């Protein structure tokens, strides 16, 4: 939908409204904000909905569609002020300042009561960590995200097990006739103990498909840290990112240092915080990797909020194909664990009939529960 049909634009002049708004979006990109073509189209649609003659509407439409993280907001305000005029920028409501969190200090503790104070501080620290485990990762401050990244190092992913083709000796199970007979032959036909056998187990492959589109930008960092914990665990794990295209990032995430691994991952992912084409991404995975063996018998975990730009029926068909070859399909939705959430997005509705587990994925506590779900698959 084009905004050129509106009667007024926030800035006067002879330029077309679309040209003014696109110029602002490109100026914002030049200032360092990751404004993609999909975001530009969404911005034009949003302005058309609120009305280009509404100053507050234009401001908030751009803020909601062109900014991908809290770090972009300050640059957005600066470019908005320069592009549309300082007076218009001043009409926006002031943001509430975040409340400061009191910190415990050991410097003021008396020497005679230091032992008791240490216990209090340790309990307070443990309580803070427990609260952080249940916080929505998209709402965390940079300092809280840094603390959360340390918790990912304590995750211990476990691979689900599958039965192997080979038999192994065991204290119980089925009779191993060959071993029992060979043992009796060595005894010159004398009866001996019966040998038993059972099928061994092998780790089952885990495939992680992580949505890194704009609607998932608040969760992408934490989800990739979770994927890094899997990729460096020594388990048979493959990791892909989904956006407007499919990107294989397993090699980038194999680095031991999580920050370097995520930086390398950012270098190879061309569609970070862009649009969402889940159906095409799942189809590309199945056509190039999945049906050739990577997804066969594997546990496939899809991280996405379900906002699909293409036909939802196409996503449902691709999920059906995926379910036909995978051992188990797990959908992780960051909004699943929030109060009042209902799976009403068309993409989620189309995919749910082909999903074995539909779980939450918005906090460290839910990530720990996901590890258990995958291990039991």
Summarize it.
By secondary structure, the chain is of the alpha/beta class. Helix content is 47%, strand content 14%.
Structural overview:
The protein has helices at 17-30, 37-50, 55-66, 71-84, 86-90, 114-133, 142-152, 177-186, 217-231, 250-253, 258-268, 278-294, 312-325, 346-351, 364-375; strands at 161-175, 196-203, 206-211, 237-242, 246-248, 299-303, 328-333, 357-360. By secondary structure, it is an alpha/beta fold. It folds into three domains: 3-90, no CATH class; 164-202, no CATH class; 206-375, von Willebrand factor, type A domain (Rossmann fold, 3-Layer(aba) Sandwich). The strands form two sheets. Strands 5-4-3-6-7-8 form a six-stranded mixed sheet. α2 (37-50) packs antiparallel against α3 and α12 packs parallel to α13. Residues 1-14 and 86-113 have low confidence and may be disordered.
Write the layout of secondary structure elements.
Elements: H1 17-30, H2 37-50, H3 55-66, H4 71-84, H5 86-90, H6 114-133, H7 142-152, E1 161-175, H8 177-186, E2 196-203, E3 206-211, H9 217-231, E4 237-242, E5 246-248, H10 250-253, H11 258-268, H12 278-294, E6 299-303, H13 312-325, E7 328-333, H14 346-351, E8 357-360, H15 364-375
Parallel strand pairs: 3-4, 3-6, 6-7, 7-8
Antiparallel strand pairs: 1-2, 4-5
